[in-house]
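Researcher: Here's a chain I'd like modeled. Treat it as a single chain, no partners, no ligands.
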Amino acid sequence: MIIAKLILKNWRNFQNIEVGLYHRVFIVGPNASGKSNLLDVFRFLRDIARTGGGLQEAVDNRGGVSKIRCLSARIHPDIEIEIHLSDNQRKKIEWRYALGFTQTGGGLFKTRAKLKFEKVWDSNGQLILNRPDMVDKNDEKLLQYTFLEQPNANATFREIALFLQDIKYLNILPQVLREPGSFIKSSSQEDYLGRNLIERINKTNANTRKAYLRRIQKALVSAVPQFEKLELVKDEMGTPHLQAIYQHWRPKGAKQWEDQFSDGTLRLIGFLWALLDGNKPLLLEEPELSLHSGIVNKLAEIIARLQKKKSGIRRQVILTTHSYDLLSNRGIAGEEVLMLIPDEEGTIVKNASDIEEINFLLNSGLSIGDVAIAKTTPKKASQLSLQF
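Model: Modeled as a single isolated chain. Structure tokens:
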């Protein structure tokens, strides 16, 4: 399955949006327009559905309802999220899940998120869950918990929970990967900075790991000068390391471990491993960082190639980017791009193909990079250098 539609009300920067999503989604917008916040709605649903998570923890990890609610929310302050899950060909809606919540408590009591509604529709469009029900109304404490997070309550739509639990998010920070013990761990269970990437690679089935590393090695041979081989090795203490071998005057070449890799090499390895490892939606933050523009231009094509699994299932990849080089790839269609346009009443989000001016320019032969970057550049950016 893939997430085919997203509907939000009062989520962070967004007062009211409804957009279609495809197998590849490129989120484009100026700084502080809400790109990361839009990506975070999928992590939020994942955090509710995952084992040991839940609505309260997902809200608390984000600073509470007041930090999540859009600042433009006034008359209708509830936060609402709805997703439509379709088959992999995006031809039929398999499930619809909708969640609304607000804030309750305060004063001497810890503020809690309170469920306003939770609804599920099946593939026939039949409403199979509609909360609050009579049981909820007789015991309002139950409204602090979703059925999505409770295995004993979501049996009829557990497929949604399992799908959301496997959403992955990665934003490799090279310094953390090189020296994982030198940085404070995240309060959540998510290793989104790649601290444990090498450990995860080590724990992967040996045959699968070797196959993935061979594919990554082929890419690195093309992208990194003098690169020859990538493998997983262990030191005297049994700690796993990524080892690269480069062409050198020595017969066996020059060897380096991950602490000597460049930022770009580490980011590219993390990007490729993330694409290969798994088949549920993958969320990426600006994968172009630290990479040469010639490589960045190929990222969209790499995603398309690695999305296709042996079973024919295409993995959904949703990413944020500022990069002209990435978006100038001619294979990116207008409907794959979400344009974020800041407004006084919250950021507006539209598929690029639904904006008449952009659609006209795309049909005239320009690339998404040519039109999207210009459209999302702040109006006063040209005056920035004059301020100093």
